[in-house]
């Protein structure tokens, strides 16, 4: 009986069926979004999607996309979505959902390369393909899937030993959003450790040919695009795309544990010092994780992203997607029991719920719930740390797995 | 009835000067002007609110253009892109007198004016969404009061380029339409009957908690950081 159910399930989750279901599901939701936008007061489409389209309108007229206030992305996104104006206003959404499904396919490839059976790879990539969070985000017209696609394809190319393509994609991903820069040290150490062991110290090995090539290509892509856009759109480009995110002092409530402190101290002379101090735990953790897990890049990138997001000075729910797309690569190697895994998942959702409730009362009911939001933000950090600690301590490194199979 | 309508129309538009097309000057009957009552209401709670304007009057002798000029303080903002989307969806016509930043806190912003265009015939009602800004934390927490002043009411008979003053109301210049292409003369109504008193409050942080909040935040982040560092150190391969 169990076997029969298993076979039925497997047939259901056949790769092609899975991709088709995932794609159709998204298309249906895009269609529903069009209907809801037309008929209901509460819109389905994310405000950012309108920002992209407005920015596209500016770039196609030869003007700066930064004329659209709150446009804080590379001009590439505005260019990419210009068919929104000429073809169909839903072009961008179709592009994002396609990226989303391709991410699922990349996850499947990476999982099989990392030793999962095709069946297991199917199950784990389904965690992305059928996950309501990425489905919701991409069908509402948010561009996060493009970045997930770039990050996953960088990892795939590194796994396939195609360092130059990987370097190109990595340079492009940092250009699109700044956070993959946190993978830099881990990628460098990983490339260096695969090359000939030149020196005694890890950092001496950093100067090998492969690594310099990687750094050169990704650096050229990143700086080339940055310079080109700087000459096209000037200071606005640098400020809106990079500096705004680095110096962001958004005091409005968000998931960050630092939110209330930064709001209360926003005008104090200590504000800048506090901002820098808040950067320290993030930096220390990113550095140590890169040293500790660079031999397993997907795990390292997952942890780096989760650390970066959890300890960041600003954190919104779309940031969770940054590490969610890497989670399926980590899960197959966890020795956690299903019960414990579900418990951790519930804990994480509880943490979110406990934050969302007072945030709703503050934002939509006008109650003064700042203190509760602060507590909830700290609790959410504690929960995130517990989940990360559980993942790290129950992770079976690839070397152990290989030894077992030998 | 037809006669009455004709009479009122004559009362409404009294041409002055040349009767050339486009240079018609007209006035509004003072008896009718006295019947105009504006009611203001604020609906919804929290940081996302709506200003509801409604103008009631006796039967209008002719089609009248209405412009409400609502001054708004630095504590709130209106999102011009939301206005653009509402213009498409509901036909709401609002023009802002200056560029409004949608992210700055109240203490880094300045006030602005919203010009709300309405036209009769039809219900003279407009629902304008606006949002609260974050305010400076106070020493006692609680709420920050944000008073909203009464708007100015400007009227203009449809198809009239200029308007003759009807004392005590004076004639002022303002953009003719929401597209802000040209200026028209409008009759500003003095001593307007306004129903509804409007004041808002937004929650603010409690500055007296700054020290414990900083200490608590630092303690929890340091502990979480140490907890993670220890685990990574223990399980990592160096």
Automatic annotation (TrEMBL), chain A:
Keywords: Endoplasmic reticulum, Glycosyltransferase, GPI-anchor biosynthesis, Membrane, Transferase, Transmembrane, Transmembrane helix. Its EC number is 2.4.1.-. It is a multi-pass membrane protein. GO terms for cellular component: endoplasmic reticulum membrane; glycosylphosphatidylinositol-mannosyltransferase I complex. InterPro entries: PIG-M. It holds the Pfam family Mannosyl_trans. GO terms for molecular function: alpha-1,4-mannosyltransferase activity; GPI mannosyltransferase activity. It is an enzyme of class 2 (transferase). It is found in: Endoplasmic reticulum membrane. One of its GO terms (biological process) is GPI anchor biosynthetic process. The chain crosses the membrane at residues 12-35, 94-113, 167-191, 211-238, 258-279, 285-307, 319-336, 342-362, 369-396. Pathway: Glycolipid biosynthesis; glycosylphosphatidylinositol-anchor biosynthesis. PANTHER family: GPI MANNOSYLTRANSFERASE 1 (PTHR12886:SF0), PIG-M MANNOSYLTRANSFERASE (PTHR12886). Belongs to the PIGM family. Catalytic subunit of the glycosylphosphatidylinositol-mannosyltransferase I complex which catalyzes the transfer of the first mannose, via an alpha-1,4 bond from a dolichol-phosphate-mannose (Dol-P-Man) to the glucosaminyl acyl phosphatidylinositol (GlcN-(acyl)PI) intermediate to generate alpha-D-Man-(1->4)-alpha-D-GlcN-(1->6)-(1-radyl,2-acyl-sn-glycero-3-phospho)-2-acyl-inositol and participates in the sixth step of the glycosylphosphatidylinositol-anchor biosynthesis. This is GPI alpha-1,4-mannosyltransferase I, catalytic subunit. The gene is PIGM.
Automatic annotation (TrEMBL), chain B:
InterPro entries: PIG-X/PBN1 (IPR013233), PIGX (IPR040039). It comes from Electrophorus electricus (Electric eel). It is a single-pass membrane protein. This is Phosphatidylinositol-glycan biosynthesis class X protein. PANTHER family: PHOSPHATIDYLINOSITOL-GLYCAN BIOSYNTHESIS CLASS X PROTEIN (PTHR28650:SF1). Keywords: Endoplasmic reticulum, Glycoprotein, GPI-anchor biosynthesis, Membrane, Signal, Transmembrane, Transmembrane helix. GO terms for biological process: GPI anchor biosynthetic process. Residues 1-19 form the signal peptide.
